[in-house]
């Protein structure tokens, strides 16, 4: 597997992820620093795996990761990564990886005052930050798994939720980290998120396809600000080393 490389001087704004084939899709050789990327796809397409693989590569090269989980426990995350030989115990023990399990209903109560989102948009802007990163912890990457979990427990998806998302993306921008935000969508969804808002607020949108009829997987970069990237749909595989993307194999028909 390709090693992560933090580039120096004029290239310091680029991060190589270490995922085979992915960095080759960028003219700059990696993803821009300090951006938010929506990782979109249906169930089982590999969204969480993609994010965890990048985070592990960053951790093993001395970086830090803040992982926010709305569904899976720390034990479950560790177990899924162990399957690929990515032992994260030592990173948790030394403090370079923090996994924070959050009940999505608690987020709604803190932000909106109730689960149904009855607080006003003005009130929301004066409430606490979307997430609390521990003091003196400056992560290279933040993973949110997933934004869809907040929507699923919310009875409203209108102006209050839009205000919350705007505040949330502003929080990520101020964090000076790369943020990977997982979005679970249905197979017939024409948007890249359940609300249709996140893809406009994010700096980048990456889609993972699970082609059930063909028993294949595919990968596409819809947009990525501050970079030059290839714009086709490429074959993707999940093997014993994790995700691998094949820039020479273009999927013509989904």
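^ Assign residues to that structure.
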């Amino acid at each position: 597997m390709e090693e992560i490389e933090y580039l120096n001087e004029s290239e310091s704004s680029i991060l190589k992820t270490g995922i085979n084939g992915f960095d080759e899709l960028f003219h700059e050789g990696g993803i821009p620093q300090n951006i938010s990327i929506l990782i979109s796809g249906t169930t089982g397409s590999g969204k969480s795996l993609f994010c965890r693989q990048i985070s592990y590569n960053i951790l093993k090269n001395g970086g830090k990761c803040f992982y926010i989980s709305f569904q899976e426990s720390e034990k479950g995350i560790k177990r899924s990564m162990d399957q690929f030989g990515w032992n994260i115990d030592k990173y948790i023990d030394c403090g370079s990886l923090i996994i924070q399990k959050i009940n999505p209903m608690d987020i709604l109560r803190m932000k909106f005052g109730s689960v149904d989102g009855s607080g006003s948009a003005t009130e929301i802007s004066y409430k606490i930050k979307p997430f609390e990163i521990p003091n003196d912890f400056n992560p290279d990457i933040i993973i949110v798994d997933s934004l869809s979990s907040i929507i699923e427990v919310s009875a409203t998806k209108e102006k209050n939720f839009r205000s919350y998302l705007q505040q949330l993306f502003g929080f990520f921008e101020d964090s000076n980290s790369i943020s990977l935000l997982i979005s679970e969508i249905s197979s017939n969804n024409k948007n890249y998120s359940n609300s249709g808002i996140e893809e406009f607020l994010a700096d980048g949108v990456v889609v993972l396809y699970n082609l059930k009829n063909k028993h294949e997987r595919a990968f596409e970069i819809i947009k990525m600000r501050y970079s030059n990237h290839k714009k086709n749909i490429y074959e993707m595989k999940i093997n014993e080393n994790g995700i691998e993307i094949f820039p020479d194999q273009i999927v013509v028909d989904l």
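The helical segments are 47-60, 74-82, 89-94, 104-112, 121-125, 148-152, 159-174, 198-201.
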